[in-house]
Write a structure and sequence with these properties.
With 385 residues, the chain is of the alpha/beta class. Helix content is 33%, strand content 21%. The chain has one domain: 3-Layer(aba) Sandwich (Rossmann fold).
């Protein structure tokens, strides 16, 4: 009977084509209390670089095992779809789709600076959850991408699964975390395929669920050189959506980690942690940031990680959070902060315009979804097996 109970505990339940791991192996939402999160970090402070790198190897391994991503699937050889170039004030916008897996399309917008340069930084911009409008069409997302392009970067913003033009699945399907991670890696491939993009100046920044994508792709892909995960890195909160914590990347039997350790895998590459007083990042200056700064210190690079804490702000990628990120990206990606500053030296986003969703849509009557696109959770799940 004891063996039977154990088998039931670690088994999976299959229902209507979806697989749900047992709660014992998933760490979702506020899995720890704030006190437990703090205590966990205090009990996992490495004394040496060697000790940390051994721990880091285990953390990366479980991320891959938990996602079923020990081996990255082959990259499709199809050409990207790029259309409807719009000339704006100092930048252009194009509508983009490309395959991340056979029949599965990443959708988004490509922002490029008008000014010609010898080389360009490339920035991937995953977005967080949000409605009216959702995803990449939100003002905060469009402003972020346009301003970075005006600073001289080539920027790609991609849809979350099930949002925007990415309608091949529902958002909350069992392997959304795996799909979005593959999509982000393919997004970096796409940026690097653009002539002039410098492979030594690749960055990722996103808020909330996009912050989770930011530190996960940085953990798995060392082509990422600079990151700014915004309002997400928490010792006690593990992500409230299946696209963040719906697969067992944090726990396996006696093994346990949290998002702070995962974010610390970015070390010693430059990273900006932006936090606020009204969500799960309210303790960052006293809990999460000191732990990560200690990891950077093991490499002699404490100066490469920063925290901007906004105690009177809420959970978003609002103007002050974006402005802190612009300064950080300009510093480490060699971008032109003066291009978006007024005569007093203050950052001015007024030239970064917000367009209607229909203008940014990838698929429409003129540009239909490709005929090989796989539709539905069950069909996509088969490709992700």
């Amino acid at each position: 009977m004891k063996k039977l109970k154990t088998l039931l505990l670690v088994s999976a339940i299959t229902l209507s084509g979806r697989v749900f791991a047992q709660q014992t192996e998933l760490c979702q939402g506020a899995y720890f209390t704030e006190a437990q999160g703090k205590a966990f970090l205090e009990s996992h402070v490495p004394a040496t670089k060697k000790e940390w790198e051994a721990r880091a190897q285990k953390i990366r391994a479980q991320i891959k095992i938990g996602m079923g991503l020990e081996t990255l699937p082959p990259k499709p050889k199809s050409e990207p779809i790029i259309h409807t170039r719009r000339l704006m004030d100092g930048y252009t916008i194009e509508n983009v789709a490309f395959e991340s897996l056979p029949g599965i399309y990443v959708t988004g917008n490509l922002y490029r600076p008008v000014k010609k340069q010898k080389s360009y930084a490339g920035i991937l911009c995953p977005h967080g959850h949000g409605e009216n409008p959702n995803g990449r069409f939100r003002e905060q997302t469009q402003k972020r991408c346009a301003t970075l392009a005006r600073m001289g970067a080539v920027v790609f913003v991609l849809d979350m699964a099930g949002q925007g033009d990415s309608k091949q699945t529902e958002h909350k399907f069992a392997k959304a975390l795996k799909l979005q991670t593959i999509n982000a890696i393919r997004g970096i491939d796409f940026l690097l395929s653009i002539p002039g993009v410098d492979p030594q100046r690749i960055a990722v920044t996103g808020e909330s669920g996009g912050g989770t994508q930011t530190f996960l792709v940085a953990a798995l892909d060392d082509r990422v050189k600079v990151t700014a995960p915004t309002v997400m890195v928490s010792a006690h909160f593990f992500g409230g959506c299946v696209c963040e914590s719906g697969m067992p990347i944090h726990k396996n039997g006696d093994y346990q980690t949290n998002n702070v350790e995962i974010a610390a895998l970015t070390a010693p590459r430059p990273m900006l942690l932006t936090s606020d007083g009204d969500d799960w990042t309210k303790n960052t200056p006293l809990v999460e940031f000191p732990f990560i700064r200690n990891i950077y210190g093991l490499y002699g690079k404490q100066n490469l990680v920063e925290n901007v804490h906004l105690p009177d702000e809420k959970h978003d990628y609002g103007p002050s959070k974006r402005k802190a990120m612009y300064v950080f990206m300009a510093k480490y990606l060699k971008l032109d902060i003066k291009a978006v500053s007024d005569e007093q030296g203050k950052i001015d986003e007024s030239a970064s315009k917000v367009l209607d969703q229909k203008d940014l849509a990838v698929f429409n009557a003129e540009h239909p979804r490709p005929s090989n696109a796989i539709m539905g959770d069950e069909a996509v799940m088969k490709v992700l097996q």
